[in-house]
Amino acid sequence: MLSERAQILLKTLVEHYISDGQPIGSRALSKYSGLDLSPASIRNIMADLEEMGFIASPHTSSGRVPTPLGYRFFVDTLLTIKPLDMVQVNQLKASCRPKIRRNWYIPPRICSRISRTSPEW
User: Model-level pTM?
Assistant: First the structure.
C-alpha cells in the first residue's frame, strides 16, 4: 500500500498532468503538493512510485506522467467528487437540449421521440 505522502504526490501529479498535459517534475510537485519536502525527497518517492508502476518517465531528464495503473488508483482511491450545484446542473441540461429554430419543419415522429426523451419538450 502507498504511504500518505506517496498518495498525496500521486494525486497532485495526476491532477496537474490532466490540467497541463506536461510531465511533472519533483520541483513542481514540491510546490503544488503542500508537503514540506525537498525536491530530492520527492524524487525518492517518485522513484518508488515508478517502481510500483504508478508513474513513468517519457524521457530520461523529463518529469513523470501517470500510467494506466496510476490513473486507476487515482480514480478508485484518491479522486474526490464534489456535487454540482443547481446552476451547473441547469447549464448542463441547457447545453444538452437540441437547438431548433422556429422556421424549421420537424416531422411528428421526431417530435414524439424528442418529447419522450426530454421532459422539457
Answer: 0.67
